[in-house]
Amino acid sequence: MSKIKLTKGELKRQRDSLHQFERYLPTLQLKKQQLQMEIISHYGLLEKRKHEEELKRKSFESWLSLLAEPRADIGKLLAVKEVLRSSKNIAGIDIPVFESCEFKEIEYDLFMAPLWIDYAIAAFRELISMRSAIKAIEESIFILKQELRITTQRVNLFEKVKIPEAEEAIRLIKIYIGDQMTNAVGRSKIAKRKIGMYAEADSYDS
């Protein structure tokens, strides 16, 4: 704690600071709790989406061998045009929310392509969309964890540094001012006693 002035003005300043710290701390603590709950929720959602993606991928296994056919080059038909996202505000910060994937429309020869190509394109596009959704959740978790780290640092700063420092400063200033007042009263009594003694001596002299 830096050196403080032992004055009434400093006492008021420290009291005002303490009031602000104590008023702001519950807001920070609430934000910290919100972030912790959201991170837990997003981890649960991430696990669910990854499980769904794994099931979808496994459902391809029965016909993946068909992709080895010379006419089965569908890679160019899966080009993503745009990943659409919105945002959601949580505890004062914006996190990404996956909406959908838009794919480039590429024409292909219906006579030359294998019969199952449309099904394969739809299935792989769904898988790509799932992975885009997972990526958005992972980004959200990263943002939430970063904000939680900052908020936790602020909570600790207020709880362990700012509030104790202000309380200690107030205590020291009050002790000092109290001592000064006691000394002043003592000096006043001594002065009055001396004045009384001088007055009494003057009366004898006269």
Describe the protein in words.
- There is one protein chain.
- The chain is mainly alpha-helical.
- It has a domain at 8-62 and 121-174.
- The protein contains two helices and two strands, in the order H-E-E-H.
- The protein has helices at residues 8-59, 117-205, and strands at residues 80-90, 93-103.
- It has a two-stranded antiparallel ribbon.
- Helix 1 packs antiparallel against helix 2.
- The radius of gyration is 37 Å and the shape is rod-shaped.
- The model has no long low-confidence stretch (mean pLDDT 83).
Overall geometric form? rod-shaped
Low-confidence stretches: none
How many E-type strands?
Answer: 2
- Helices and strands, in order, run as HEEH
Q: What is the makeup of the main sheet?
A: 2 strands, antiparallel
Rg for CA atoms: 37 Å
* Percent range for β-strand residues: 5-15%
User: How many angstroms does the end-to-end distance come to?
Assistant: 61 Å
Across the major sheet, the strand order is: 1-2
**Structural class computed from helices and strand pairing:** mainly alpha
Number of helices: 2
Measured as a percent range, the helix fraction is: 55-70%
Residue-averaged pLDDT, rounded?
Answer: 83
Spell out the blueprint of helices and strands.
Layout: H1 8-59, E1 80-90, E2 93-103, H2 117-205
Antiparallel strand pairs: 1-2
Helix pairs in contact: 1-2
